[in-house]
Amino acid sequence: MSSIVIADTSSSYNGRDLELRPLRGTETSVIRLARALARRGHQVTVYTRALESIENEGVSWRPLSEGLPESCDLYLPVHQTKLLGLVRRPKRLALWVAWPANQLSHYKRLPAMWWYRPIPVLMSLYQAHAYSRLLPRRDPQIVIPHGLPDDIRGLPPLSVPPQPHAIFASDPTRNLYAVVSIWAERILPKCPNAILDIYGVHGVKDGEDPWTVWGGKFLPANLSAAQRESIKIHPSVTRAELIAAMRQSRAMLYLGHKTEAFCLSVAEAQALGVPAVLAPTTCLPERIVDGVTGFLRSDPQSFADAAISLLSDDAVWRHHHEAALRLRQGISWSEMAARLELALLSDRIPLDWGVNDPSVAERDVDPYDLKTKGPLDAAALRVPLDQSSPEIFRR
Question: Hey, which of 66, 141, 366, 385 has its CA 20 to 30 A from 20?
């Protein structure tokens, strides 16, 4: 068992919040990775901006204000270089690069990257290709995609096509204005009965009119009453409600954003069998198979035409829906944790320890405590690899 410390300044949250309130992708990913590492028998502590200390799903959650330990086996801060020195003597220091890698080459962050030399853990080929030459190089680079939760993977095809509903499920700052403009001007005239559902974690409060709060900023201000009627802006909802809404959508529409590094919402939508129409920017080409599970389109009219085909043609939707269910299931969070373990802690893993072994806590033996526990039964510990997933990808 290794001691693993994760630090994140994204927001004030802890492990309980995953089931209690809407969270953004970074917070969700930290919680799921921490839980997966704990299930693999590691001692995991996560420090965030939360104000209370709790234990949840085998993970210790602590406030950053409490201070971090002097040492641990692996220290994994999330993206921010100001976190690198908070554990003074980690046996291994890595940096989980959660946003575009070139943010790390900013003149305020570059000195810390050279001083501490953390091992960068990337999550997309886009990050690997864009990794600045100004940053300390690591060859090969470590690229480990986000995992996907088990409850959205392996679902059967829908027997009946959904109603002509498209979904946008991201922060409104990420090109919502352009998506709504294309919808109103190019898609709605060809699909007059279609609905665009807008979900995401946003600041619109109960009782506020999003068209008043967002008009002219995140939403076009000059839309007609009919155009506005076709656009449903939902309050921030629980994860279960969002997954249900995705599953019943004909298509996800998203133009991407320069801050994108993985796009978990598109990955989850594809695993649910939702075809996506995307712009070919940043990491988005990695999230779908163009022409098979969705479309990559670079101009407004072709983007609209692709969306119209999915909303109006059952055969086109069916082809992309079933292909997404076959081809875009991703990897589980358990395997993501296993890949991280292999990449960063392989020197501490016994040779007869299967890469996808279940929790050590469920056994009577501790594979790391060889002196007190005695010889291990390799047959009892070995678990077959997940045959649906490739070996750890190192570029």
Answer: 66
Q: Which residues lie below 8 Å from residue 355, measured CB to CB, with a gap of 6+? A: 338, 341, 342, 383, 385
What per-residue confidence (pLDDT) applies to 190?
97
**Backbone conformation region of residue 67, classed left if phi is above 0, alpha if psi is from -120 to 50, else beta:** left
> 295 forms bridges with which residues in the sheet?
277
**What pTM was computed for the model?**
0.85
**The pLDDT of residue 239:** 87
Strands 43-48, 59-63: pairing is parallel
Q: Which domains can be identified in the chain, with CATH numbers?
A: 1-152+330-395 (3.40.50), 154-327 (3.40.50.2000)
Distance CA 206, CA 209 (A): 9
pLDDT for 275 equals: 98
Q: What is the pLDDT of residue 237?
A: 87
Strands of the 74-77 sheet, one edge to the other: 54-56, 59-63, 43-48, 3-7, 74-77
